[in-house]
Amino acid sequence: MMVKSCCSMCLCLVLLHILLCFLPTQSAPESAIVTQVPGFSGSLPSKHYAGYVTVDESHGRNLYYYFVESESKPSEDPVVLWLNGGPGCSSFDGFVYEHGPFNFEAAKTKGDLPTLHVNPYSWSKVSSIIYLDSPAGVGFSYSENLTDYFTGDTKTATDSHTFLLKWFELYPEFRSNPFFIAGESYAGVYVPTLAYEVVKGIDAGVEPKLNFKGYMVGNGVTDDQFDGNALVPFVHGMGIISDDLFEEVNRECNGNFYNPTSDNCSSKLSKVDELVDELNIYNILEPCYHGTEAEKITESYIKMPSSFRKLGETERPFPVRKRMFGRAWPLRAPVRDGIVPTWPQLLKASPPCTDDVVATTWLNNEAVRTAIHAAQKSLVSSWELCTDRLSFDHDTGSMIKYHKNLTSKGYRALIFSGDHDMCVPFTGSQAWTRSMGYKIVDEWRPWSSNGQVAGYTQGYDKNFTFLTVKGSGHTVPEYKPREALDFYTRFLAGLPI
């Protein structure tokens, strides 16, 4: 009798398994599918989805995302959330100009759409990527309650965490994939603060449980002291200022370059500013295509109260790129507590060099907006690379405590830095990563890409790695796409770089 009962139970289990195999499983929302992308001919290299996640029903606060499935094995490959900086800049910056699935060729006739080609170095070759416009008010993200545009680091992190929880509910097939968070510039704040919220949720048993593995930060602002003191040793090492001036600045400022406390120190720092004033602060190897105002911007910023700061800007040399807006602070003006003011507040003028033709033309085209499920113009009138709509409060202080918290719990971290960026110089990132006090397990050495030395790296215990990219400026995947894809691939796979 017992044998007969067991056999019946086994038969039921087998039938149940067969039935479940034929039942449809929940997957990505069909309404989010992007079926075609204006400007691109042919089949998309992988599945694309786009749309909104409401993070606050009562306020109507909605965050926009564009999701690119991996071109390799989307069911297994990591899912990566990408965040551009600002604060106030759209992550379409990364999509259009850095590591998205397409390279954008500017239209020959004004007003026409750019032509899109497959990007051989897209990060979607090895991972699925969520490009998120955050916080509300940035890019295509919006709120029906305008008070939400008074925001800051803490609120942005909690909203982004809410977004992720709801996103993985919409796309449950990706819950088991390894999950990483990545970003650059002011995302040096976004990434660790969001990662902290994610880990806090995991520890508290919040569902769905995210399979979070680690994070990456490129040329990211981190700490006012380390970032603010980075410029002088950087320009000296690059041969931009003389030994004599370097020694004088050190003597008068006692190594404190970001917050001068004497007239003599300020005078010597002004000499440094004069010498670098004609350079492209985002890549000292590249030309400037306008009369730079770096010194004027820096002086204006540093003289402001610490609660009233703003990011910097200059042009880019690429045919499709003519501005850098809101990506990093002016010289010697690192992230500090308080409200981040707009360019008109800083210079009493509109931002210089504000002509991002390719991205602005493409993303404000009606056919494109319809294809990628962007909001109607009554809700988001026009897309801007970086907005001045926000009043943004940097309210989380130094990021070093966040990095220590995350890495001490075993999450992997890669801090990478284009070594010719003068805005967030590698000297600051190298110094603060060393200050963590972790044991060196992989001593300073070159790393290679395509058979050539691509930069240098130093590995610490607790899966914490610092890496430079040789000859790159502030936005590494834009300047060095092959090298960026190489270290990105190795990091995600847990391989040595």
In terms of topology, how is this protein built?
Blueprint: H1 2-22, E1 33-34, E2 48-56, E3 61-68, E4 79-83, H2 92-97, E5 102-105, E6 115-118, E7 128-132, E8 142-143, E9 150-152, H3 153-170, E10 179-184, H4 187-203, E11 212-218, H5 224-228, H6 231-237, H7 243-253, H8 263-276, H9 294-303, E12 312-314, E13 324-328, E14 338-340, H10 343-347, H11 357-363, H12 366-371, E15 391-394, H13 400-408, E16 412-418, H14 426-435, E17 440-449, E18 452-460, E19 464-469, H15 476-479, H16 481-493
Parallel strand pairs: 4-7, 4-10, 9-15, 10-11, 11-16, 16-19
Antiparallel strand pairs: 1-2, 2-3, 3-7, 3-8, 5-6, 12-13, 14-15, 17-18, 18-19
Helix pairs in contact: 3-4, 4-13, 7-8
CATH topology grouping of the largest domain? Rossmann fold
Low-confidence stretches: 12-25, 290-295, 300-329, 342-355
Summed up, the domain count is 2
Distance separating the two termini: 62 Å
Architecture per CATH nomenclature, i.e. the level-2 architecture of the largest domain: 3-Layer(aba) Sandwich
CATH C-level class of the largest domain: Alpha Beta
DSSP E strands, number: 19
| Largest sheet geometry | 12 strands, mixed
Helix- and strand-based class? alpha/beta
Mean pLDDT: 86
- Cα-atom Rg, whole angstroms? 24 Å
Specify the number of helices.
Answer: 16
Strand content: 15-25%
In CATH, the homologous superfamily of the largest domain goes by the name Alpha/Beta hydrolase fold, catalytic domain
Q: So what's the overall shape? A: globular
What is the oligomeric state here? Answer: single chain
Give the proportion of residues in helices: 25-40%
